[in-house]
Model the fold of this input.
Amino acid sequence: NSLKADDLQKVFLAGNPMDYSGDYATRLETSSEIRTVADSFIGPGLQIIQGVALLPDEFQGGYFQDSNLVHLAMPGVIDLKYPGTSGFELSESEYEPGRVVLRPQAIRSQALSAGLVFMSSTRLIEKPLTDFSSQPGLVSDFLRAGAESVVVDFWSVNTESNNAFITDFYSRLKRTGDVSVSLRDARLNSLRTQSDSNLYDWAGYQVFIK
Done:
């Protein structure tokens, strides 16, 4: 899948879920990954949703549907046995205790314009019911909603090396416009330039193409 340079102008960046706080406006916190991605795509087309603002209504229409690139820096669980129970962890609502979960149905109901959805903080649980399950939950939901490609890190670890990998991938993507080639080259670069113990920094990334 290819993304022309102009296709990287509308970026939806979301993550860093938090417990509810009434002083959100005066206590805005961010994450190193959000800062990393924001630095790569700073400009008028960048929309950042984070902290206590990270709630389901932000994933309904608007910027979420219209963006060419969607980067999700929030914990996700992909249930291979029961895909419908997969989901992303959002922030805590003002009206109910506990973190809100964005379920696959909320994604499938959208009509997305994204050439790429990047999921950086996911983990897999359970095993598929059959050997014919070709795509995991959330991934298949984004593709069904209209995304052209999905990159997922199945071995998510919150490290500075992970941010370095993301920066390298996006730098290559902006030069080549090719999602698969950019991911391959970023993986190879990480393998060649770092120690043998950095397997979790690159090996968990997979790409799915419509």
Observations:
- The chain is about 30% helix and 20% strand.
- The chain has a mean pLDDT of 89.
- The radius of gyration is 16 Å.
